[in-house]
Amino acid sequence: MSDDFTLLPDLAVRTLGGAVLWANDESFAERENLIRPEAATYSPATFGHKGQVYDGWETRRRRGDNGDHPAGDDCDSAIIRLGVPGVIKGVVVDTAWFKGNYPPEVSVEAIAVEGHPSTDELVAAEGWTTIVERAKVNGDSANPFEVDSPKRWTHVRLRMFPDGGIARLRVHGIAKPELSWLESGPFDLAAIENGGLVADCSNRFYSHPQNVLMPGRAASMGDGWETARRRDKNTNDWVLVQLAAEGVITAAEIDTSYFLFNSPGAGSLTGIRADGTEVELLGRTALQPDTRHRFLIDAGEAVVRVRLDAFPDGGLARLRLFGTLTDEARARLRAELENDLA
């Protein structure tokens, strides 16, 4: 995996189940815009009764007790529930289109709360930990901040000093769902919501490869992963998936929905064991456009990664790899969770 944390899944995005649960103010633009999956847009001179309509979260202008600028520690804030708990590797505070009304500084905090706490409980909760110290941001820019914390978090709180507008908040990391859910029976070992992620790929010209591991059916061709047209002979595109943990795969689904004239001609699945050796899960098999292909896998081998080879190039909507964890993987995940809760 590259050191670029933005290649990791966005754990807060709405399509993964994220939600903006609370904000102290949203006078000009709604807080829910923060986690929309698409990039922010802007249409000039689109005024509503509250002013220019922005595709982001925008608060009113704060004023101090004397009607002047507020005190230095005054701020607006919003609480976001991650779509799936996880280890956060970095955040992006995107102020796209906010040029004269962006906040000068921001900070980000995180907390781990089990169960389904209410908004009031989260607002009053103790234990919020700063993962991005108060820092300056630029307007109309994607402002990235690396996070150095091994802990598993469930919610983040975005603060902006003192007020203004933010278009999007991206929280990139590795999902760490509840172990009891993963132990309940066979599940999709590749799904982002279960802890899987794309570790590498051959090409991401048109769209992000993490899309193939997102929940649900793809909404359009743009909701999948599409490569550039490959012109070199005897080569092919591929995507490498890091499974939630070591497991035995028993079924797979390769979905080319919405890819009518640009789907791969064929595909194969190769498992990679913990020691780096490979095992064939699905030999090279013809793929049809706009089709959900389902295959039973009987290799019976425990693997930690799976490579999907697409021949020679093209696009995929979703990839599902169903199976069960090994006993060793369950023990390791249980130890990690107990360490996080300690």
TrEMBL record:
EC class (word): hydrolase
Any one biological process term the GO annotation gives: purine nucleobase metabolic process
Keyword Nucleotide-binding: no
Domain Allantoicase: 17-174, 195-325
Keywords: Hydrolase, Purine metabolism
Enzymatic reactions: allantoate + H2O = (S)-ureidoglycolate + urea
Top-rank taxon: Bacteria
EC number(s) given by UniProt: 3.5.3.4
InterPro entries: Allantoicase (IPR005164), Allantoicase_dom (IPR015908), Galactose-bd-like_sf (IPR008979)
GO molecular function: allantoicase activity
Pfam families noted in UniProt: Allantoicase
Signal peptide: none
Pathway assignment: Nitrogen metabolism; (S)-allantoin degradation; (S)-ureidoglycolate from allantoate (aminidohydrolase route): step 1/1
NCBIfam families per record: allantoicase (TIGR02961)
Similarity comment text for this entry: Belongs to the allantoicase family.
Protein name from the UniProt record: Probable allantoicase
